[in-house]
Design goal:
Elements: E1 11-15, H1 17-26, H2 32-40, H3 49-55, H4 61-64, H5 67-72, H6 77-82, E2 86-93, E3 99-102, H7 113-118, E4 128-130, E5 133-137, H8 146-151, E6 157-160, H9 177-183, H10 188-195, H11 197-213, E7 217-220, H12 235-251, H13 253-262
Parallel strand pairs: 1-2, 6-7
Antiparallel strand pairs: 2-3, 2-5, 4-5
């Protein structure tokens, strides 16, 4: 919606699937990720349990950032390379359990490891090695990367949340703790970050609302609960959520423009 209204923001902080979406925002390709999710949700090359068994990853990153990005729904690498906007791609270092952010310059047609790492969920994806770091999903340590933005001196923020205000993250990992400790026995800091994720999420979300109360932020969130599984392949449900997101954002368009005008 922002791109469709010619609203471009200098710095974008994003993690996991959000980082993938943000890439198309910076490349000025509104609608590209909508087509990816709706046209390839049931494509076995995109995601399948067979891929997990064969490659160690539930998602076909070689396909997503290979044939899909280069041929089927081409990503505009040239526009992305020349933009003056900055993308901060959030990942989690498995050795420290802390977030590590990477910039646009790390995304190249032949090397998209930072974005892959940002979307590499624990257990269902492989650890990604990049420049001395061992990385997984940025959502583990920075589900809402507001702390990183504030740390970098970005004092005014438009924050897009993927859960409505009533949402409460379950106070337990998605996978049993004993299994996580076994699988990642070499990375205890990662296991602790996963265990602490619900508390970290609440801290980050509360900070968003506090910043909004201080008039330092504008929080955009779903108008109703999103009750789907992480790996939803029901195209009708995905389209329904997309339409809701567009409607919710359009309903705040005047606020968004006012906030930007006041903080330029």
């Amino acid at each position: 919606m922002l791109a469709e209204n010619d609203i471009y923001i200098q710095d974008t902080y994003a993690v996991s699937a959000g980082a993938c979406n943000a890439m198309s925002y910076l490349s000025k390709q509104p609608g590209r990720n909508y087509h990816i999710y709706t046209e390839y949700a049931n494509d076995k090359r995109y995601s399948s349990w067979k891929l997990l068994w064969k490659t160690g990853s539930l998602f076909g990153f070689d396909f997503i950032f290979g044939e899909l990005a280069h041929t089927l729904l081409p990503f505009d690498f040239e526009e992305f390379a020349r933009t003056s906007m900055r993308l901060h791609i959030g990942t989690t270092d498995v050795r420290t359990g802390k977030p590590v952010f990477f910039g646009n310059e790390t995304v190249r047609p032949d090397d998209m490891r930072t974005v892959i790492a940002s979307a590499s969920l624990p257990v269902v994806a492989n650890i990604v090695e990049y420049e001395g770091h061992a990385l997984l999903d940025g959502g583990v340590s920075a589900s809402i990367p507001i702390e990183a933005a504030l740390h970098d001196g970005i004092a005014k923020n438009i924050i897009v949340l993927t859960r409505d205000r009533t949402y409460v993250k379950k106070n337990k990992p998605e996978f049993p703790l004993f299994y996580l400790k076994h699988k990642y026995k070499a990375y205890p800091a990662l296991v602790e970050a996963i265990r602490q994720r619900p508390a970290a999420y609440e801290r980050q979300r509360n900070l968003c609302y506090q910043e909004q109360e201080r008039e330092n932020a504008l929080v955009i969130e779903p108008s109703r609960p999103i009750n789907i599984k992480r790996q939803c392949r029901d195209v009708e449900m995905l389209e329904d959520i997309y339409r809701m997101g567009v409607a919710d954002a359009n309903a705040r368009l005047v606020e968004i423009n006012r906030f930007l005008a006041m903080n330029q």
